[in-house]
Every structure is written in C-alpha cells, then in structure tokens.
Amino acid sequence: MTMRRVTLIPGDGPGNELFAPLTALLEAAGARVEWQWMRSEASEDALASALPAACIQSVRTNGVALKGPMLPAKGRLESPTITLRKALGLYAGVRHVRNLAGLPARYQDVDLVVIRENTEDVYAGLEHEVHPGVVESIKVVTRVASERIFRFAYRYARSHGRQKLAIVHKANIMKRADGLFLDVGREVAADYPDVETRDVIVDNACMQLVQRPHQFQVLVCGNLYGDILSDLAAGLVGGVSAVWGMDQGDDCVVFEAIHGSAENPLPLLMPAIALLGHLGQGGAQARLSAAVERLLADGQSLPRDLGGHATPLEVFAALRAAL
Ligand code: IPM
Ligand code: MG
To answer: Which residues surround ligand 2, an ion (CB under 5 A)?
Structure first.
C-alpha cells in the first residue's frame, strides 16, 4: 500500500501531547501515513490570523488533515478552528452520531448525521458596538452557501443509503435569514424526491432528539444550530469518545477531535480511525476499531473519565496489545 501524506495539527487543547503515541499506535496497526506535523499556536502579531499560513498551505497541498482541539484564540482573534474552515472552504461539517460498542450511553442504536453549514451564520464574526452598551451581531445567510450545503446533504443522504432528511431552522422568528435557508432547502429537496424531507424548528428538534432520537437520519442545520445540535446528539451516545467531526470542502477534508481530553485518548483516536477509512486503508481501520471495542468490552484499562483507572499511555498499551 502506498504511503499517504497527511497534515497533523495537534493543536494546543487538552490531550495534544497524545498525538505521538497515537501515531505510533496507528503505525502498529498497519497504517501507511507520513504525518506532516504542524504547530498551531496563535501568532504573536495580534493582527495576524491565529493559524500560521504554513499550516493552511500544508492542508491544501495534502488535501487531508487530522486536527486536535485548539484553545480559543487570544484577545479578539478568531478561533483557529474557524479560521481553518474559512481559509480552506470547509463548508460542510459532518458529525456522524452513532453508538460505539461497549461505550455506556443514554440510547443504543442511534445512527444519525448532523450536517452543518460551516462558513456563515453568526460565525461570520460580524459584531460591532453601535452605541456604548449596544452590540449587534450579524447573522449572514446566503442563497449560494445554503444551496451548496443542501446539495451536499442530499448527495450524502443518497450515497449513504439514508432516506430521511430534516431541515432545522427558526424561520418562525428569523423570517428572512432562516426563511431563506428553509426556502432553499425546500427547493433543493424537489430535486431529490427519493429522500423524504421534513422541516423542524430548532427548539423542537432538540426536544425530539432527546425524546426519540431514532426518528432522525440526517439533520441539516445552519452553523450555530449545527454546533449546538451536534453536541446535544453526541451526549445521546456517550459523549466525546463516540463522536468526531469531518469538515469537508471541495478540495480538502479535515478530521477533527471535537473536544479533547488529557485523560482519554479515544476522542483523538476516533477521528484518526475514520481518516484511515477515507485514505482507503480499511485493514488498519478495522484492526483499530476492533481494538477499541475490545478495550471497552474488557473494561480493565479504561481511562478515568470512563470510570477506569488507566493513564492515557496505559490505554495506548492496552489498545496495542488488543491489535
Ligand atoms: C465545534 C466547536 C467549534 C465551533 C469551536 C471550537 C470554535 O465547538 O467544532 O463544534 O464552535 O464550531
Ligand atoms: Mg461545538
């Protein structure tokens, strides 16, 4: 199998020091990846981006990256995660929410996907003080970005054998902004009659998710609702160990740990395993997935936040032994 070059952005969040043992574990499982390590500390220059240009260029060149959690940027700088999404045009945030065998969770057999528009909405970062004590934050919704995310979501539904899609919005209140998002969603839906479309107001979507998550297959959201719903949904299946993020554009894809943990390697390992699938390295992917299942089933070497006593390095050792 040929070696693939992948950008690795460990980030500065919790657990970033675990990427060295993590890449060693992947290699032991037979992964053929040449990692291009990138530092990501915020630049000293307050006007510069919180993400070095070399890092962005590396992802552009390699087309694929693995990213750890990053701390909020200093001062009023944009979050480096957001900078990366915008700079690389990673317009689709995909979070596959499903149970991980052996991981305790509120529900079992959940299998839904939150697809999130990643580039606009209140994440546009347009905030200003119009008068002392009065701040406006602008929600940007465009037809172009809305159509792009809906077409992505319907293509995703089709290619992943999903028949139901829910458009999440608050068009009863934000009649113009969310109204446009909803209208475009319905227009695009007409081109995909094989997918059953419904729309759900975001607050109701939260309640429905908590009460009956199995009714959902694909949820399409604007940026902020997608952010909130994906964490809500992760909480249904056991939290940060089960759910990773995939930020996708036309030319690049970034697999990311949504939340880090200094105690538990699983939030970092799960996106790395998914990445191997993307690279076509299904053998290594399957060996690692089986090792994670064995770790959870056996219960002897669980990290502290899953009720065990193992340090992260002991978890890696147990996974290696389980390969
Ligand atoms: C996420 C995170 C990010 C977001 C933060 C870290 C900027 O919460 O990826 O879900 O708000 O999108
Ligand atoms: Mg989030």
So the answer is: 227
**Tokens read off for 17:** 């020091």
The Cα angle at residue 66 between residues 298 and 157, in degrees rounded to 5: 85
Mean pLDDT for back-to-back runs of 10 residues, the chain (323 residues): 92 88 98 90 49 90 95 79 93 97 96 97 93 97 98 98 98 98 98 98 98 98 98 96 95 93 94 97 98 96 95 97 96
Provide the b/e sequence for 60-94 (b: ≥16 CB within 10 Å).
bebebbbbbbbbebeeebbbbbbbbbbbbbbbbbb
What is the C-alpha to C-alpha distance for residues 64 and 276, in angstroms, rounded to an integer?
11
- Show the tokens assigned to 272: 């790395």
Instruction: List the structure tokens of 44.
Output: 């000293």
Q: Which protein residue's CA is at the shortest distance from atom 9 of ligand 1?
A: 258
pLDDT at 50: 63
Q: Which residue segments constitute the domains of the chain, with CATH numbers given?
A: 1-90+249-323 (3.40.718.10), 92-241 (3.40.718.10)
Please name the amino acid found at residue 219: L
CA dist 66 and 49 (Å) reads 20
Q: Is any atom of ligand 1 closer than 6 Å to the C-beta of 81?
A: yes
Predicted model pTM: 0.95
For residue 226, report the distance from its CA to the centre of ligand 2, in Å.
8
Rounded to the nearest whole angstrom, what is the distance from the C-alpha of residue 244 to the centroid of ligand 2?
11
Cα–Cα distance for residue pair 24/264, rounded to 1 Å: 16
